[in-house]
Design goal:
Strand order of the largest sheet: 1-2
Largest sheet: 2 strands, antiparallel
Strand content: under 5%
Shape: elongated
Helix content: 40-55%
Radius of gyration: 21 Å
Order of helices and strands: HHHHHEEH
Distance between the termini: 38 Å
Number of helices: 6
Length: 148
């Protein structure tokens, strides 16, 4: 993905230093996650241009009313903070990224409070309450015979 991005910008993977390429290869960020991909793209572009990356401002994340969107931004900011720590030459404001995370966490709190009362599911086997995403409670799930 990084090589494709660099090629689309007219360079290639060899535009990065070996140290930077190795650091990216060892990252815990996933190209399967859009927020991680976007943060990596921003990082690679800044490294390729040899310019500082822009740091998002915490105020940008206030009053987000969509849970999926706030989840995206939480992952993006976390990924960008990893990139800022891994690549000091990006000159990302790590303090501002932490403030972004705090504002996003506060937004999560308010969005989750609006979801009350929390839905409760029931175990198909014994009828006890369990999370709505599960069909069985913990005890019944543990007592199921293995499928080996």
């Amino acid at each position: 993905m990084i090589d494709e991005l660099l090629r689309s910008r007219g360079s290639g993977l060899y535009a990065l230093t070996a140290e930077d390429a190795w650091r990216l290869a060892r990252s815990r960020l996933s190209i399967d996650n859009k927020a991680d991909r976007d943060a990596l793209s921003k990082t690679v572009a800044a490294l390729d241009d040899d310019l500082p990356a822009t740091t998002p401002l915490a105020d940008h994340f206030r009053d987000i009313a969509d849970l999926a969107l706030i989840e995206y931004w939480a992952r993006y900011v976390e990924a960008l903070r990893w990139c800022g720590n891994a690549f000091p030459q990006l000159r990302l404001d790590l303090g501002e990224l932490v403030r972004c995370e705090m504002v996003i966490a506060e937004g999560f709190t308010y969005l989750l409070a609006d979801l009350r009362p929390f839905r409760v599911g029931h175990c198909e086997k014994c009828g006890r309450s369990c999370p709505p995403i599960h069909r069985l409670c913990k005890d019944c799930a543990r007592s199921r015979p293995s499928r080996r």
